[in-house]
Backbone:
């Protein structure tokens, strides 16, 4: 349960076969004392008030799932000369592959290569394309984007500001309310700001030409998202790729 995670840690050290974690004493107060109906101060010198053991887990990026190369079946459903797999109608021929970030991972271009994951070396072994042509599609798995400073797990937790922007943008995209609980809030972000009803006259445009032509759309949640990414207060975010 993330509520009971001990963080941040003061230090993490590997000494031989021992994994040493150092954190503040107040972070290990027993749950019963923290959740007491009548809260009371905890005696910090009494070891009985603190945990004697904790669960340690590791969160890491598994690099073996980076790319799937996909080939559509040919109209005749027969493989061209040189292919090492048979074609199945209404099904992609697939092959695993790895990704390479060209140069600086910021604003980079990704390239791919067919390969097979080697569990012993924990690396990809090179392999030839299973089809005698370049793949028609490639599915990719990678981390990319802005990492908010100040968050303990910024590869998992989204920047709160951008989480709100994305939520409003998503509400503008929905075709119907997700529940009956709060239709007014949903309708607020669904409202199309390109039109403002006038008295006795046709609807008129209510946005600047730049906002009207923005690629997100003209509903309120879409306009808010477009204004957010173009705000002068938003500097160039540090976006990198991790595969």
Residues:
């Amino acid at each position: 349960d993330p509520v009971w995670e001990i963080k941040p840690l003061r230090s993490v050290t590997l000494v031989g076969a021992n994994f040493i974690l150092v954190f503040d004493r107040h972070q290990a107060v027993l749950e019963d004392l923290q959740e007491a109906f009548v809260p009371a101060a905890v005696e910090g010198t009494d070891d009985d008030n603190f945990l004697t053991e904790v669960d340690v887990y590791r969160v890491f990026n598994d690099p073996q799932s980076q790319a799937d190369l996909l080939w559509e079946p040919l109209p005749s459903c027969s493989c061209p000369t040189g292919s090492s797999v048979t074609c199945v109608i209404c099904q992609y021929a697939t092959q695993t592959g790895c990704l390479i970030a060209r140069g600086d991972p910021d604003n980079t271009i990704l390239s791919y290569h067919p390969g097979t994951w080697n569990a012993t070396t924990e690396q990809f072994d090179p392999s030839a394309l299973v089809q005698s042509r370049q793949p028609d599609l490639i599915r990719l798995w990678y981390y990319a984007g802005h990492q908010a400073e100040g968050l303990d797990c910024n590869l998992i937790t989204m920047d709160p500001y951008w989480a709100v922007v994305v939520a409003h943008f998503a509400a503008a995209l929905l075709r119907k309310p997700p529940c009956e609980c709060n239709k007014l809030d949903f309708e607020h972000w669904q409202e199309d700001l390109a039109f403002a009803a006038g008295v006795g006259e046709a609807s008129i445009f209510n946005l600047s030409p730049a906002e009207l032509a923005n690629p997100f759309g003209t509903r309120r949640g879409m306009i808010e998202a477009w204004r957010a990414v173009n705000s002068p207060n938003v500097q160039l975010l540090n976006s990198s790729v991790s595969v």
About this structure: The mean pLDDT is 81.
